[in-house]
User: What shape does this take?
Amino acid sequence: MPWNIRPGTDGTLRFRRPWDEEEQTVPATPNVQAVLTSLEELDDHTPGWFFGFHPPSDVQRVEKVWAQIPGEVLVQSSSVDELRREIRQVRRQRNL
Assistant: This one.
């Protein structure tokens, strides 16, 4: 499902994942937008998982992303590509 990522009027990006109760706001940097778009795509192709990231500490870059099957497993990585690899490994190990 789409995250409805769009620019805000104040140098931010706004988005709302299907499970978010409220709209989220993050700095509108190329890195943050790329991470959001990649996580949205991963979410679309990986049913049953929830995805997110730790808010950027330096306002320029997302440093940690995560994926979770509630009550089952939590995977954290420093990049979306690494997260994809971790998810594949967990799915193989747990026959998911």
User: Anything to note?
Assistant: Strands lie at 6-7, 12-15, 24-27, 50-53, 65-69, 73-77.
